[in-house]
Automatic annotation (TrEMBL):
It holds the Pfam family Band_7. Keywords: Membrane, Transmembrane, Transmembrane helix. Residues 119-151 are annotated as: Disordered. Its main location: membrane. SMART domains: PHB (SM00244). SUPFAM superfamilies: Band 7/SPFH domain. The lineage of its organism: Bacteria, Pseudomonadati, Planctomycetota, Planctomycetia, Pirellulales. The keyword Transmembrane helix applies. This is SPFH domain / Band 7 family protein. Residues 69-256 form the Band domain.
Length: 321
């Protein structure tokens, strides 16, 4: 769903610029800077044409130095967003040593694949007055988010999101701090998803625990919808932690154990009834013994007790008539 555009706002799309190789401009800049002193010295002893030569030498030095500001080295899977006095001019994605207009302002944007865990916090790097990094950028471990599932049960959930920048212009100009934007919107999408599904389900209904692949695909699509305007592509979103909240974990464990016991007993009873039926048919087919209704009922009762009991039975041998 498209958002309304406010008056005066412009939506920026990426324009890729194929920059020149930097070795030629580097050689020309060095040549200008090296040749300039000879031109100045020649102008000092040239008589009437001296000021012209001196001015030319000074301009050569200035041109050579200024031209060097257009040189830049771009590593693989990195880019430079170019601005000319605040106006977006394009993005250089070509890796290597390149040269652009020296008056461009260059902003670095990484195109590499990144990942983070929801609930984690990032501490930016700190520098001293001399610009030396005193504390590098760090990220804390992810802390699960506590939310209520569709049935109102408090649960803890967190996810790992893998993403990368695909449109550098949107990433820089459509949102403020696109890295923080990705983290906040991913957390919001995860919380919204957790409230739409139950933690567990005993039927074919989708649940957070039972439908892992479908839930993860749904989470990835939800995050992508929220990040569409930020020039970011979500490659994968996987739930990394899922559990009941501590205050109800014990009660839910008992419920799960009771459900497992009931399911096991149901299977045992089904098997025991089948075995009793087979025994009666076998006795009747081979004429081993003739049983009346009371004896059949007693035999069925004894067999079911033996087969369904969770303890070893103690046989009682009848010695009388």
């Amino acid at each position: 769903m498209s958002q309304p555009t406010s008056p005066g706002s412009v939506h920026h799309h990426e324009k890729v610029i194929d920059a020149f190789s930097g070795w030629g401009p580097l050689g020309i800049s060095i040549l200008l800077i090296v040749s300039a002193p000879f031109c100045i010295v020649a102008g000092a002893s040239a008589g009437p044409n001296g000021p012209t030569l001196i001015g030319t030498g000074v301009l050569m030095i200035v041109a050579g130095v200024v031209a060097m500001f257009g040189l830049m080295a771009i590593a693989p899977n990195n880019s430079r967003v170019l601005l000319l006095f605040g106006q977006y001019k394009g993005t250089v994605k070509r890796s290597g040593f390149v040269w652009v207009n020296p008056f461009y302002t260059k902003k670095k944007v990484s195109l590499r694949i990144r990942n983070f865990e929801t609930g984690s916090s990032t501490k930016p790097e700190t520098k001293n007055k001399e610009g030396v990094v005193t504390q590098p950028k760090t990220r804390s471990a992810g802390k699960p988010s506590k939310v209520n599932d569709r049935d109102g049960n408090p649960i803890e959930i967190s996810a790992v999101v893998v993403w990368k920048v695909v449109d550098t212009a949107e990433a820089l100009f459509e949102v403020d701090d696109f890295e923080n934007f990705v983290e906040v919107q991913s957390e919001a999408a995860l919380r919204s998803l957790a409230t739409r599904y139950p933690y567990d389900s005993r039927d074919d209904e989708q649940s957070l625990r039972g439908s892992t692949d479908e839930i993860c695909d749904r989470l990835r699509d939800d995050i992508q919808d929220r990040l569409e305007k930020a020039g970011v592509q979500v490659l994968e979103a996987r739930i990394s932690h899922l559990a009941y909240a501590p205050e109800i974990a014990a009660a839910m464990l008992q419920r799960q154990q009771a459900s497992a016991v009931v399911a096991a007993r149901t299977k045992i009873v089904d098997g025991a009834v089948g075995m009793v039926e087979m025994a009666l048919e076998h006795l009747k087919r081979d004429n081993i013994v003739e049983l009346d209704a009371a004896q059949r009922a007693a035999l069925v009762s004894n067999l079911l007790v033996v087969l369904c009991s969770d303890r070893h039975t103690q046989p009682v041998v009848q010695t009388g008539a």
